């Protein structure tokens, strides 16, 4: 009897042992199913002039947002101390949406905290190139707090393809609306023109280019210049929605005068610049003194006038 009981106990212990080996926890099952993928994460070089890839192995558990995990790894920064991250470590990835070969990424507001115009383009390029390095992705759109990321031109960047590793050589164009005088000098007419913009330049440099296009005059036959062609843009400053523009003395010495001509000049500048959502008003000076063509000494910033635009 004792022998039988011993055999039964031994069999029971063996059964428990085998059962324990066969049953795995959910965590163990997930670890077994997790995929590991080699991904190239892009960062700035030591001088923050070019983008350099850093290869990293990243694992994805079943049901996880693969792209979000990759971006979180990118935000953590490089392992190579000779590389630089241009994305704030406080940036959060709210989520991603894959649409065919396009991906939309929604970041927190910390993503917009760039350390200058070069850092901005390297940061944006690092996201785009990391994502387009995946076989299934061709284009990337970046949102910040649900709103499209805006470029140096003041326009949304939209969907972006892979950046060159030396982004300083990349050139973009932006469609801008320039306002010129009509024949009677009582209304402004708009003319759309492409203006070149390199990603590393800041908004003030871009606005200077826009003003230089405005000074060149219209291409349409029914529109007329509102600024003397000899005028030079000395400086551009943008502060809390106010653009401060300083022109050379030719704005006074070469101007054709008249109240109507003066009005056309002022609102040609103001309405052109307030086409950009980061400018609400414009302060115009000539050699750092208030604009004073003939009838008005313009000491205060001027806001946009819709009524002066011809329909």
Give a short synopsis of this structure.
By secondary structure, this protein is α+β, with helices and mostly antiparallel strands. The protein has helices spanning 2-22, 26-33, 66-76, 117-132, 203-216, 250-253, 259-273, and strands spanning 35-44, 51-60, 93-99, 102-107, 139-144, 147-148, 172-181, 188-197, 233-239, 242-247, 281-286, 289-290, 302-303. The protein has 2 domains: 33-167, no CATH class; 172-303, no CATH class.
Average pLDDT over all residues? 88
Gross morphology is elongated
Number of domains: 2
How much strand?
25-35%
Helix content estimate: 25-40%
Q: Helix and strand string, N-terminal first? A: HHEEHEEHEEEEHEEHHEEE
Major sheet details: 5 strands, mixed
- Rounded to an integer in angstroms, the radius of gyration calculated over CA atoms is 30 Å
Number of helices: 7
Pick out the low-confidence regions: none
Topology overview:
Blueprint: H1 2-22, H2 26-33, E1 35-44, E2 51-60, H3 66-76, E3 93-99, E4 102-107, H4 117-132, E5 139-144, E6 147-148, E7 172-181, E8 188-197, H5 203-216, E9 233-239, E10 242-247, H6 250-253, H7 259-273, E11 281-286, E12 289-290, E13 302-303
Parallel strand pairs: 4-5, 10-11
Antiparallel strand pairs: 1-2, 3-4, 5-6, 7-8, 9-10, 11-12, 11-13
Helix pairs in contact: 3-4, 5-7
Word description of this protein:
With 311 residues, this protein is an alpha+beta fold. Helices cover 29% and strands 27% of the residues. The protein contains seven helices and 13 strands. Strands 9, 10, 11, 12 and 13 form a five-stranded mixed β-sheet that branches. The protein has a four-stranded mixed β-sheet with strand order 3-4-5-6, covered by helices on one side. A two-stranded antiparallel ribbon has the order 1-2. Helix 3 runs antiparallel to helix 4 and helix 5 runs antiparallel to helix 7.
